[in-house]
Design goal:
It is globular, with a radius of gyration of 21 Å. The protein has a single domain, classed as MFS general substrate transporter like domains (Growth Hormone, Chain: A). The two termini are 38 Å apart. By secondary structure, the chain is mainly alpha-helical. Helix 6 runs antiparallel to helix 10, helix 8 packs across helix 14 and helix 13 runs antiparallel to helix 14. The protein contains 15 helices and no strands. It holds the Pfam family MFS_1. It is found in: Cell membrane. This is MFS transporter. It is a multi-pass membrane protein.
Length: 431
């Protein structure tokens, strides 16, 4: 068993790991069920489908932009384990609302639940990363970060697959049950009081957000890391929004294939998260990040090629899962999608580990919160780009080519970060 997997046998890591997994599973089970319901039952227009997915994504992201500064301050000023338990208790109420929306087919209730889930994730996000350097040794942080990321995407995998297999009634019951289980595992997370002096909390969300971002982004290495991560999530938001309409309207396949696409994406990121930890041997470094995101751009172009040469189903019909996987063009599409996700995981995991290890422990949550604010702005911009593509009728092949160009910007930022980190390490050795 590798050192990182041994963490799963410790109380300082396992309860957080389980709580994170259950939360991500629940989020994605509900979101995917809602998106599939809207795409395959409510709407029959590609533009409306893409617009709905973009609105749902935007509502989920909005709280990160508004409340990340507050969540980071609270996490650094109070016991993080106690905040986790409060947040997980709130998740039960949120999922009751979401379940009601599914059972009554009320889209507004579903969207309210999506917005509330975004608030839940905003307050949980900084804590899950800030706890790692507080509970783990320095040489365990990258491995722990990789396991958290891998568990997140395995949870996405499980949630997206299940959403395509069970009906809305079963989903409504299950999301509430999983929320209760998440609250139960959260109760076992060890105490994590502030390691330093408690900062004064500024409840003015605009002022505190500006202060937090400006106070973090003036550090060159953090600036480059946050910008690189943000470009990654901008790319990710465009792809996630495009997937259901891409599957239905280009690959002419049913909702089980849409779940398969997201499942492959999740598996790939999980593989990339673990693989990069092995390649770096536990060392936090951006060494492989530029090459990873360039490879991601090439796989995006390959996916565009696969979609351009796809032979669609007969008019009025959709491929089922068996028909899709036996289609002559499926291997290229699956390899491309898996390549995009593996290289994406290899790119982003070391950057998250860098954020949590390059600052003092008592500033970690606020650093992650600043990153979340910038990330959310980038994801909103990505959603706007996706809406623009749909409104202008841009073919998916051209959209994927445009997204691949963004990967080159991320590669440049990652290369700058790697050079800056090497220069910093060299100056520290000389000192």
């Amino acid at each position: 068993m590798t050192p990182s997997f041994r963490l799963l046998g410790t109380r300082r890591f396992l309860p957080l790991f389980a709580t994170q997994f259950l939360g991500a599973f629940n989020d994605n089970l509900f979101k995917q069920a809602m998106v599939l319901f809207a795409t395959y039952t409510i709407y029959s227009d590609p533009k409306k489908e893409a617009a709905f997915n973009a609105v749902a994504t935007g509502l989920f992201i909005l709280p990160f932009f508004l409340f990340s500064a507050l969540s980071g301050q609270l996490a650094d000023a109070h016991d993080k384990a106690r905040i986790i338990r409060i947040v997980k208790l709130a998740e039960i109420a949120i999922m009751i609302v979401g379940a009601a929306g599914l059972l009554t087919h009320q889209v507004p209730l579903m969207l309210v639940a999506i917005l509330a889930m975004g608030i839940h994730s905003t307050f949980f996000g900084p804590i899950k990363y800030a706890l790692l350097p507080q509970h783990l040794e320095c040489d365990e942080v990258l491995g722990g970060t990789g396991l958290v990321e891998a568990s997140t995407y395995c949870a996405i995998l499980a949630g997206t697959i299940l959403a395509g297999l069970i009906d809305f009634r079963a989903t409504a019951i299950l999301v509430v049950v999983i929320a209760i289980l998440g609250w139960a595992t959260a109760r076992s997370v060890p105490p994590a009081p502030p390691p330093g002096e408690r900062p004064v909390t500024d409840f003015h969300i605009i002022r505190s957000s500006i202060k937090l971002v400006s106070g973090t982004m003036h550090i060159p290495r953090l600036f480059l890391a946050i910008c690189a991560i943000s470009f990654f999530w901008m790319i990710g938001s465009i792809l996630i929004i495009q997937f259901p309409p891409l599957v239905k309207n280009v690959f002419t396949a049913d909702k089980q294939v849409a779940s398969l696409f997201l499942a492959i994406f999740s598996i790939g990121v999980a593989i990339g998260s673990v693989l990069i930890n092995r390649m770096l041997d536990g060392r936090v470094s951006a060494r492989f990040a530029p090459a990873s995101v360039i490879a991601m751009a090439l796989f995006l172009l390959l996916l565009g090629f696969a979609s351009h040469h796809w032979i669609p189903a007969p008019v009025g019909e959709l491929y089922n899962l068996k028909d899709f996987v036996t289609h002559p063009g499926a291997p290229v599409a699956i390899v491309a999608l898996l390549g995009i996700s593996v290289t994406g995981g290899m790119f982003v995991v070391p950057l998250y580990a860098f954020l949590t290890t390059t600052v003092e422990v008592d500033h970690t949550a606020r650093t992650v919160a600043a990153n979340n604010i910038v990330n959310s702005g980038a994801m909103v911009f990505g959603a706007i780009i996706a809406i623009g593509f749909a409104a202008l009728g841009v073919p998916v092949q051209d959209a994927l080519a445009s997204v691949s160009a963004l990967c080159l910007v991320a590669a440049f930022l990652a290369w700058r970060l790697h050079v800056a980190c090497d220069a910093h390490e060299e100056s520290c050795r000389l000192d």
